[in-house]
Amino acid sequence: MDDFLIYLRLGFDHITDPSGYDHILFVVALCTVYTLRQWRQVLILVTAFTIGHSVTLALATLQLIHYKTDLIELLIPITILITAITNFTFKETRSRSSSITQFSTNRSWRYGLALSFGLIHGMGFSNYLRSLLGREADILKPLLAFNIGLEIGQLVIVSLVLGLAYLVIEVAKVNRLRWTLIIAGLVAGMALSLILNNDYLGELMME
Q: Transmembrane ranges (predicted)?
């Protein structure tokens, strides 16, 4: 049980580590257009991302799939940038039968996007986990514990994002569209910086 808790903590620390903030940025980008009232949509979205990264995390850790690490490290910020850009497409809509302004966030393609990009992030997670495991024979229990730790950390990030959105929009009365565009812009800018400073991209441009 001690080893289980150790890997669970490692998974939690890995996704919430500010120094490796790329995965945090992706979760923020996913949740930017949602509020606490839309927690069901967020739950489905996060579940789709979870399924995606759980699959490739397991396959890569068990060495059933192989890939170029440098390429994955470049693709991760690209997924963040794309997700952030999609947030700029959301517009406020007003129902004919209600005076309440709503966002058109019910788009099923976002779930497919989260699932697909989750596959890429799972390979990124596996790089760290494999470095921890070394030559350990039994990796199934550490794999499970690490993945659960990732999910707990992910839920913490989602809760913080939705909680902050509530305070800004409902309490401080900041325009929701403005809030969405500001956060999406910040995330997109940080993702673009990660892409431009990626060593592998530099190598590709030199070829």
A: 20-36, 43-65, 71-90, 111-129, 144-167, 179-196
